[in-house]
TrEMBL record:
GO biological process entries: fatty acid beta-oxidation
Coiled-coil residue windows: none
Organism phylogeny: Eukaryota, Fungi, Dikarya, Basidiomycota, Ustilaginomycotina
GO molecular function list: enoyl-CoA hydratase activity
Pfam families: ECH_1
InterPro entries: ClpP/crotonase-like_dom_sf, Enoyl-CoA_hyd/isom_CS, Enoyl-CoA_hydra/iso, Enoyl-CoA_hydra_C
UniProt protein name: Probable enoyl-CoA hydratase, mitochondrial
Alphabetized Gene3D superfamilies for the sequence: 2-enoyl-CoA Hydratase, Chain A, domain 1, Lyase 2-enoyl-coa Hydratase, Chain A, domain 2
Family: Belongs to the enoyl-CoA hydratase/isomerase family.
Family matches, as PANTHER family: ENOYL-COA HYDRATASE, MITOCHONDRIAL (PTHR11941:SF54), ENOYL-COA HYDRATASE-RELATED (PTHR11941)
CC terms in the record's Gene Ontology section: mitochondrion
Amino acid sequence: SIGSYENILVSQPASGVTLITLNRPKALNALNSALFRELNDATEAADADPSVSAIVLTGSEKAFAAGADIKEMKDVEYAHAYKTNFLGHWTKLTTIKKPIIAAVSGFALGGGCELAMMCDIILAAPTAQFGQPEINLGVIPGAGGTQRLTKAVGKSVAMEMNLTGRFIGADEAAQRGLVSRVVTEGSVVDEAVKVGSIIAKKSQIAIQAAKEGVNASFELSLQEGTRFERRLFHSLFATKDQKEGMAAFAEKRKPSFKNE
Ligand code: HXC
């Protein structure tokens, strides 16, 4: 999955973990269409690669991503946007089956905040700043800033962020549940890779089922959601990894999962 790209860097910092680094530093990682195409290619390649269990997505110290590329977008006309489903390809990221961990330092604004929210876990450096400043450009978010943010932080904070453009820092983001935790300065990528390494040691079938279950909670009623969860749970009894995991517990040893 380590291809050659112009706007991102792809590496393997630990066994089973692919690290994708957004790499347009001069534009604070503004998300132009070339970058997003490469990001989609790299995440799809990692999803298809059996040696990869988790993906870490990061930016630079100064910016995870400062949003969609305003310079690329400013002359877009409605007819073109509608006919081409402008930026619709961003949602491809949400079809990736393997867990994606966002390691956020600095600005995660507009489409950058939305990109982080499309990931499964967000870890924040103390410098992280989240915001939806689209309102200052005469538009609104187009990739989940009114939807995922509301589900993450609740109505009042989401409204304030969307209507005034106020940024929230790492601590407030953690307090509101937008990120899972704030890590020490300079360690956010290492911590995210550690989370990926922990995930890589589990049964990958169970990992993908867990991700599917949590994501279903955003779409289904509680009754349908718990039914779906129970069915997923039942299905895991068809795996060798379930037999291995439970046998290992009973025999007081570490499980060795084969993803079968
Ligand atoms: C294009 C951008 C950019 C962006 C920064 N740059 N953000 N270019 N699109 N979103 C460029 C600047 O033009 C500048 O280029 C360089 O990056 C450095 O930025 P500065 O503004 O000089 O840095 P600083 O003063 O530190 O301010 C940082 C900042 C500011 C607060 C993050 O750059 C900013 O407000 N950026 C825009 C944030 C924003 O509105 N995002 C939402 C976009 S709309 P030069 O060439 O001058 O050096 C969106 C919609 C999503 O995301 C829809 C999804 C479907």
